[in-house]
Amino acid sequence: MLAVLALVAVVVTEGASLVQTRGDRERRMMDVLGTAFKMYNPAYLVDNGPCCETTPVSMAFEVTARPMGPVGAWPGGSQTYSISQDFFGRVGRLPLGHTANTRLSQSLFNVGTTLGRKEEVKQVLARLPADLSALAVVEFERPLPEAEFEAFVRRHGSCAERVVYERRPGSLPITWGFDYWTDPADLRKGGDVTDEVCRGGLPQFRAWVGLLRDHDDANLRSFDLSLKRLREASGAGLAHAYVDELSSVRELRELLKDPQVRTIRLADVAFDLDRPHP
C-alpha cells in the first residue's frame, strides 16, 4: 500500500511539473519576465540565469544584478535574486524595483521635470576634473525619432546604454537597452547584434513588444509597466533621453552645448584607474 501511495505521489508530482513546462512556457517566462525585470531596474546590469527551477506549483529562475557605473570605475557588488511565477502564471514578489533608489534611477525619474536645469549642470561640470568618467542621463529638448536619434549619437560619438522611450515625470519611464533581449530572428539570420549596442535597439524593442499578449498585462503591471504603454512607446519610437556611461566630464561639457540637449543629469563620476591620460 505504501509503495502504491509513493508511486501515485511521484506521478502527481511529475505530472504537475510537466504541466508547468507545457509548450513554450519556460521560454516565454524568460522572454517576458526576464526582460520586464530589466526594464523594472534600468539602473542595473542584469544577467538572467538558466531556466528553470520547476516545482509542481511554480517555476523560477535566478538573476544577477549590479548597479551601473561610469566606465573604468570599480564595479559594484552583484546580488542574486529569484524571479518566480505560480501555477497560473502570475509573477511572485519582485526584488529591487522601487526599493532600488540609486542616483541613476532617480535621474530617470526626473526626466521631463524642471529639476537639474542646463545652467546648473554647466556649473557642476565646470567644478569637476575634465578627465573623470561619468554616468549620466542626457535629456533632449524634444523627443527624437529613430533616424535623428541615431544621427545625434553618431555625431557626438556617444553610446546609448539605455534609451528612454516615454515621458513620465516623477515615475520610472519605459527604457530599452541592447542587453535587455535579443530577437531570435536576428540570431537565425546571423545578424550582428553588436550594431545595436549604442543605438538603443528600437527594432528589438518592437519585436519584444510584438510577442506580448493581452494576458501578460497583469504580470507587466507588477513591473510598473503596462501593455498599453509599451505598445504606444514602441510604436512611436521617440527617444526622450538616454543613459551614457562612457563619456568623460569633458565630453559632457561639449554635449551640453548642443541645442538639442535639454539637460544632462549626472548620476556618478569616477577616475578610470586604467587610463594613463585623458
Q: What does this protein structure show overall?
A:
It is built from 10 helices and 9 strands. β2 (53-55) and β3 (58-67) form a beta hairpin. It has a 5-stranded antiparallel β-sheet with strand order 7-6-8-5-9, with helices on both faces. Residues 3-23 have low confidence and may be disordered. The termini are far apart. Helices cover 37% and strands 21% of the residues. With 278 residues, the protein is an alpha+beta fold. It is globular and about 60 Å long.
SSE arrangement:
Layout (H helix, E strand, L loop, with lengths): L1 H19 L4 H16 L3 E5 L4 E3 L2 E10 L11 E8 L16 H7 L8 H10 L5 E12 L1 H11 L5 E3 L10 E2 L7 H6 L12 H10 L5 H6 L4 H10 L2 E6 L4 H8 L4 E10 L8
Helix pairs in contact: 4-10, 7-9
Key attributes of the depicted protein:
9 strands; globular; 278 residues; alpha+beta; disordered N terminus; five-stranded antiparallel β-sheet; four-stranded antiparallel β-sheet
> Rough shape?
globular
Count the strands?
9
* Low-confidence spans: 3-23
Count of runs of 4 or more consecutive helical residues: 10
Q: How do the SSEs run, as a string of H and E? A: HHEEEEHHEHEEHHHHEHE
Strand content: 15-25%
Main sheet record? 5 strands, antiparallel
- Tell me the structural class: alpha+beta
The amount of helix comes to 25-40%
Spatial sequence of strands, sheet with the most strands: 7-6-8-5-9
How far do the termini sit from each other?
Answer: 78 Å
* Rg of Cα set: 21 Å
Mean pLDDT: 85
